[in-house]
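Q: Convert this sequence to structure tokens.
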Amino acid sequence: MKQSELVDLLGRMTLREKIGQLVQLDGGCFGTDAVAVGPRAKLGVTQEDVDVCGSVLNVLGAEEVHRIQDAYLERSRLKIPLVFMADVIYGYQTCYPIPLGLGATWDPELIREDYNLIAEEAVADGCMVTFSPPVDVVRDARWGRCLEMPGEDPYLSSRFARAMVEGFKGDGTPQKSLASCVKHFAGYGAPEAGREYNTVDMSEWRLRNEYLPPYRAAVEAGCDLVMTSFNTIDGIPATANRWLMHDVLRDEWGFDGPIITDYAAIDELRAHGVAANRREAAKLAMNATVDIDMKTPCYAHELEALIETGEVSLEQIDTACMRVLELKNRLGLFEDPYRTCSPERRTEVTCTPERLESARKTCDEALVLLKNEGGLLPLTTGGNAPRVALIGPYANSRDIIGMWAIHADKTHSVTLAEAFAEVMGDDGFAWAQGCPTLDDYSELGEFGKIPAFGAPTGEGADLETMAAEALELAASSDVVVMALGEHMLQSGEGGARTDITIPAPQKRLLKRVRALGKPVVLVLFNGRPLSLTDVIDDCDAIVEAWFPGTAGGRSVADVLFGTVNPSGRLTVSFPHNVGQEPLYYAQFSTGRPAKTSTHSGRFVSRYMDCPNDAMFPFGYGLSYHTARYDNLRLSADELTVDGVLEVSIDVTNEGDIAGTEVVQLYIHDKVATRVRPMLELRDFARVELAPRERRTVTFILREEALRFWTPEHGWASEPGAFEVMAGPNSRDLLVGEFELV
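A:
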């Protein structure tokens, strides 16, 4: 449809129809006759609200989309189609590793390709807009939604944000393109104490330097929508924050697409205490230029009255409605209201061998080897293979996809036991659950009883019998692989926790197995950084598997048995103790730094009972080869504003097998008008090395990489001394210096 036709359409719409385009309802409002009275009544919306609403939340399935769209268009006066939006975060029915694992690949180009495959699969089954990517910077492992984000670093998160948006966009054709909605704008990853939906309170300079860059990268990459976050910014909830939504997002960054709230966020302005009633809440959100009200009656029932009183203008309604119409037009819905979805198309592209292999390849890169004492891994196969016992709640579980893979098809998931059988045969290993995932499942609440999220593993079983079976297997084995971790529902939205260790029954079992004197490999399934202090000595090797998705079982086997040389590197810091949180590598200088202060040992910035640093730092990961980094050199000792500085480092594979190194480049602004982080990631490169190969990796630094948000409220660099560092992680670095002149 031409723009002039959209303008004409807008002119023919009634006020009620315009407001309807700004309302999103979920599938509970649509039944066989497009009416589901119970959910509709509970929400407080009328049948007329349903008949004119503009979009649908989390209803997918080609047949269902066709049914609802047909019934809706039959009643629609102007035949403006619905747009179907859903959470497709890290896979549709083919599930990839959680984004925390995707970040660990340090491979944005691979993730771009994956997200294009995800888009094609989701579009075939009726998804038109995905509430993804989430790109909140995460620095507190207590926060449950760590699993949805690429990591703790703004530069790396920005690279992934751009790749994900571009992947969803694909070539732009309806069959291979999914509109993306970046979320959660803004600062959602920094709630006080890591508690879900809690206050976010930070300075503007910190917001600008560390939390906003990934969102901006997504906007620059062409995301179609932006979703508001639940938290406050500068004491004002994001959904009502005009400075954030209008001044920054729209005026500064030039974003002119729809802004949509997160679930029920406008109505929640009352609970925040900034609105006395729904009318005030609707006014605040509309004046912040929020276009779509997700799952509340605020816009549907209050905007007309606000226009009558002059508190909201008709021009505002027209502008918001036009943004929604333009989105639908870009999606081609006026020509094809189903956007090519069909059962036949779904069958062609869902969980195909290509997608399953893609998920496996990505998962192979996402796994991180954290410990490998005595070279226990990889395990050998064949005639001299050790007898392996596979033990733990995740030994034969399909619940390895993570909480937010709500559309995944678990029938294609391969468990760890099934993958072991493929490698070793049924006679080469034996498995046992050994213990329940948790002692007490009550913390999961009613949500934990939903079948789609997995039943409580081992709840109500004879615990001593379970343990005895596992210990008997371990005693008769040569090596024990322990598949342990969080319950799938202990991380994800609403999964804030003060105890971020492995659950108690699993720790008890691990210690009993360790007491048998067998070599132990710990495979972790989790959605956040864990504190491993109380188990680190109970295992010889640790593989961080995250929630690895559909291909997770096979990928873990790939790494354990050496088919794949692990190359994953952490994008979050693992603490010694939860008391260190929030913990991140880009710490700031203090007046009394623990390592270099001239003050006495007590009166410096440190913990008395725990190290300051991470147990496993940002960028860390081991491989089966050994790499040496040396000969850091700079092309000059000065960098001019319009010049370039080449930073080179030599990397040598000293092992006998090929491997991949993730070479990382950091800077430190030594003296500035604001205190600067001790380290800031500025570039990285994945480098494949043949056995004994030595390669030179060269990075290019420009002045723009040295800019920060200054006291003058703008982006600028400042002349002076800088350190530049390169190495395999944020801890083990070679250092050089230069001057910006």
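The chain is about 30% helix and 20% strand.
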